[in-house]
Amino acid sequence: MKTILLAEDDLDFGNILKQYLEISGFEITWAKDGAEALDYFKAQSYDICVFDVMMPKMDGFTLAENIIDVNPECPFIFLTARKLKEDKIKGLKLGADDYIVKPFEADELVLRLNNIIRRAERSFKTIQQTEVLSISTYTFDTKRLVLNCQDYTKQLTQKEAELILFLVNHKNQLLKREEVLTAVWENDDFFSGRSMDVFISRLRKYFQHDPSISIESKRNVGLEFKVS
């Protein structure tokens, strides 16, 4: 049984959602505010987290930032009644796996949760097939999810590691956006595309210590991970 940490301050909505997810086969820990959710997360592990954005004591975005500090590998999604583009972009930058605007169909939420969990499990198995890769002057430890270059060390998230692995395996090739999205996100919709853009920006910063490595975008086509 997959475990979910649900953070939702609306008691009526939270109770209905908790019951529906339990009927759908999940084990639910329900926190009524962000601070309580963080305490739960520190006490045990979860397969995925579902956070409302607007909550007392600690909002969903701040909660996600703290969750990432504790365990950057745990996937999470946001639920919100706000349709602001700025909120969606902020959620993407934090590394959210999805951003769902209320009201929504409960069946759709269950489907998205199961897809994210399966994708995370497959990603972990794929990354673990190789131990240490050399990328010019960098080393990529796929077991520990660590990227090294001389005095620079970066602890990666699972999604970052999976994207790096895919790019390295297709280095010096022009890749269509759809190829990358299908391989790493298993979806090429708008949300996944914006999420990929955020992750590509991160990787450019991680690899900036070696000028022989670059990630070049080809407008309306795709991108190329260049290693000279």
How far apart, in Å, are the first and last alpha carbons? 47 Å
Helix content bin = 40-55%
Strand content: 15-25%
pLDDT averaged residue by residue: 87
Question: How would you sum up the major sheet?
Answer: 5 strands, parallel
Oligomer: single chain
Annotation, overall tally of beta strands: 12
**Low-pLDDT sequence parts:** none
Overall geometry comes to globular
How do the helices and strands line up, and which of them pair or pack?
Blueprint: E1 3-7, H1 11-23, E2 27-31, H2 34-43, E3 48-52, H3 60-70, E4 76-80, H4 85-93, E5 98-101, H5 106-127, E6 132-135, E7 138-141, E8 146-149, E9 152-155, H6 158-169, E10 174-176, H7 177-185, H8 190-206, E11 213-218, E12 222-227
Parallel strand pairs: 1-2, 1-3, 3-4, 4-5
Antiparallel strand pairs: 6-7, 7-8, 8-9, 10-12, 11-12
Helix pairs in contact: 2-3, 5-6
How is this structure best described in words?
With 228 residues, the protein is an alpha/beta fold. The chain is 45% helix and 24% strand. The chain is built from 8 helices and 12 strands. The strands form 3 sheets. A 5-stranded parallel sheet has the order 2-1-3-4-5, sandwiched between helices. A 4-stranded antiparallel sheet has the order 6-7-8-9, with no helix packed on it. Strand 1 (3-7), helix 1 (11-23) and strand 2 (27-31) form a beta-alpha-beta unit. Helix 2 (34-43) runs parallel beside helix 3 and helix 5 packs across helix 6. The mean pLDDT is 87.
